Amino acid sequence: MTARRTVTVLGLLALALPAAAAAQGLGDAAARERARRAREAEPSRATPAPTYGNEDLSPSSEAKKGEAQSGAPAQAEPASPSADEGPHPGAGDVIRDRRARIDAAQAEFDQANAALAAIEGRIKQLQDMLNPMSGSFIYGAGGSNNANDEALVRSELSRLEGQLDEPRRAVTAARQALDDAERGRVPPTYR
Predict the structure, then answer these.
(1) How many angstroms separate the CA atoms of 95 and 152, rounded?
(2) In the predicted model, is pLDDT for residue 112 greater than 90?
(3) Where are the domains of the chain?
């Protein structure tokens, strides 16, 4: 029996070693591939992209480039304020005006949304009064059991459903005004 076990163990080892070597080979291949990709990606990070500032966009910079290329002095241009001299005059006013427009648009949107929610909430209450499955059903245990109340509820429900279009349009318009204010678009009344 010992010889048979030895042969079995050797046979299993003969089968297991190539599988382990193959697994090791796949791990090494994956590591080599990751290293190759890292080397390929590295040169693109090593050279930074060129950056351009306001001085590159001003006409005087074009004159300086021309002067450097031709060797002759370029025609001088009047100095213009650069971005390094500080904020533009009135920039705070523009920011405050935009913030005020955003706040006003947000308040208008909230008000329109609240008005719509109030009407929709009342409609839901009235619908529940007509729904036999709700706890506030007119003919239920807590209801009035009065047919006149049902007619009044149906009348008010019909009136409120007819009034939904105006608050919905107001919410849509207020949402658009808020989006315009947040994105810095000037409303037509300011143009």
Answers:
(1) 52
(2) yes
(3) 1-40, 92-190
> Does 64 score more than 80 pLDDT?
no
Closest alpha carbon to 53 in 82, 81, 78? 82
Are the C-beta atoms of residues 77 and 59 closer than 8 Å to each other?
Answer: yes
Residue 61 has pLDDT above 60, yes or no: no
- Chain centre to alpha carbon of residue 13: 59
Whether 118 has a pLDDT exceeding 90, the answer reads yes
pTM for the structure as a whole: 0.48
